[in-house]
Amino acid sequence: MATSTPLDEKLSSRVTTGLLRMGTALRSHAWEGAALSGLTPTQGEILTLLLLRGVPMRLGKIAEDAALTSATVSEAVSTLESKGLVEKRRDANDGRALGLRLTTKGRTSAKRASQWASFVTTAADLMSDKDRAQLYRMLLKLISTMEIRGDMTRQRMCLTCEHLETAARGKGMYHCNYFNTTFDDSRLAIDCNAHEEASIATRNKIWKLYSKS
């Protein structure tokens, strides 16, 4: 019987292996950056999320978006508060709820934390425009597929947004009714503050079109 080798491994398994290696590198750089900043990777992730959102967030929403337990978020936030990096304020729309926001000092730390993964950006910049765009399309398809399967929390992507228009824009072209701009699929966002969840029918229509590109 012939001995199986890594060359015989399914392509989907090799894709998984590659992504796991990426995860290892990201985790390593996160720990390195966190150590230099006097933070933990989880604390840095929360700061980066608050910076990205740009608005106060409830603890439950942070836990949901970061795929962390409520206990983990609560502990990390307590530490960030003691460091003067975040503060809790009453929600403007619900006085009973508390929203977490960055302090001035916290914004500076968040900007530094957001650069922990910059080595990936640097590597991507060395690729050709064509290869970079193709990689991004594949990433969007992979993320969308995992969302549909329930394997990851729903992202605030253009592909699931009510504002995205696909009709009569030409192959690979889209229009955002919120920002009133037309663009190609390489500019479809993974996370957008203007995101509004589209209906199931609209999401299915967009996915059907995009999955064939």
Task: Please describe the structure with a list of short key phrases separated by commas or semicolons.
213 residues, 5 strands, 53% helix, globular
Condensed summary:
The chain has 213 residues and is mainly alpha-helical. 53% of the residues lie in helices and 12% in strands.
If you had to describe this structure to a student in words, what would you say it looks like?
This protein is mainly α and 213 residues long. 53% of the residues lie in helices and 12% in strands. The chain contains 8 helices and 5 strands, in the order ααααββαααβββα. It has helices at residues 11-37, 41-53, 59-66, 70-82, 104-113, 118-125, 129-149, 200-211; strands at 86-91, 94-102, 164-165, 173-176, 181-184. α2 (41-53) crosses α5 and α3 crosses α4 (70-82). The longest helix is centred in the N-terminal third of the chain and has 27 residues, at 11-37. It is globular and about 55 Å long.
